[in-house]
Amino acid sequence: MNRSRLLIFVVVGMLVTTAASAMQLYRYKDDNGNTVMAALIPPHLVSKGYDILNAQGRLVQRIPPALTEEQIRERDEAAEKKKQEELAAAKQAEEDQKLLKQYGTPDAVVSIMNRRLAEIDAVIVSRKAAIEASKNLITKSEEQAANIQRSGKKVGKRVLDDIEMAKKEIAVSQSVIEQSQASYQQILSEFTVVVNRLEVLTGTKAKDFPIER
User: Most C-beta atoms within 10 A of its C-beta, which of 63, 166, 174, 197?
Assistant: First the structure.
């Protein structure tokens, strides 16, 4: 054998070895559930998943079965839920930073809240005093009107107007008190949330909180 023929045999041998190494098999389940190893997979079985093996029968890659419509829906719902949770977490982190920057500590929030509530209490006290004053005015005016009537005279328009104005003042003050009480509860509720959150973020408890009313 001359040198040229030897070279040809070597090249052919290398090609055969390379081809054998590159050959791959597929392992899958047939329609009857039996495991099959072959060079090709029937197209209608591809979606059920299969294994890719090398020439030595070792696993190279595992292709999972295609997802069903329900599995796709569940996957998409899970992905959307995770996305919303991440957005909510990011928003909460942003809000937390704003709270820390604006207030710093739970006690600072309590101090601001107490000032706001004290202002509302002052309005309520003032309106209650106005109601009592109006009631007293009505009582005096009605007594005055009764005395005039007993004397046989006609009650003047001024006395009647005073009574009517006092009643209107009572109605207005009662409305203001109701609105103030509602604002009080709203402020208390909103600031309580802030205090509780800052207690978590700072690891400190607010003094004299919650307040008693």
Answer: 166
